[in-house]
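hey can u check if this looks right to u? its 205 residues, i copy pasted from the old doc so theres a chance i mangled smth
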Amino acid sequence: MYAPRPIEDQQPLRHIRVLVAGGGGAGMWSALALRCAGAKVVVIDDDRIEEKNFVRLPLPARRELVGRHKVEALRESFDIEGIIGRYPNDVPSDIGKLDYVVDCTDQPRAEHFAAAQELGAVYARAGYDAREPRRRQMITVAVGVPVFGNPEPGYTAPVWVAAPAVLAGVLVEALRFHERTGEPVVLSGTVEYILAVLEGQRRAL
């Protein structure tokens, strides 16, 4: 059974600072999970909250939040630093030291990887994709290696609901592994497949 790691395994992320590019479902859940795991987090996004967003975002469903920037709501609700803008063009020159850039944008591109390198950060990708007509919810997490699409998974069991929260948990686990080993990480597949892979790694450690 997949279970949280003991508290000492939180240590690898307490010293890192992460820029999350994109404040949608993947980005906001990833930012929250990383913050809870001890990392310092900055989110860059220029989108505003719509009423329909409350279904998939970890925000209180308050009407007064509608129309406000997502990063403002994140800062007020969870004390997560925010930049109103788009990655990579609007990253300020004085952003400071970054250990990782997590690309949660809808269209990750090679220039996103290059921008992370210029910032002196490890590039990571976190995204999910509901594919029709089978609606197989696919998640992709890659750390330390440029992955811009959704590679074919090794397992194709259908999953009808894939919460961005699951993706965020996998991202945290992948960053922990990268911090401990320095090795690149690529995980892509259905939720069941990814959790099975993580459980296998857990038993091997």
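The longest strand covers residues 122-131.
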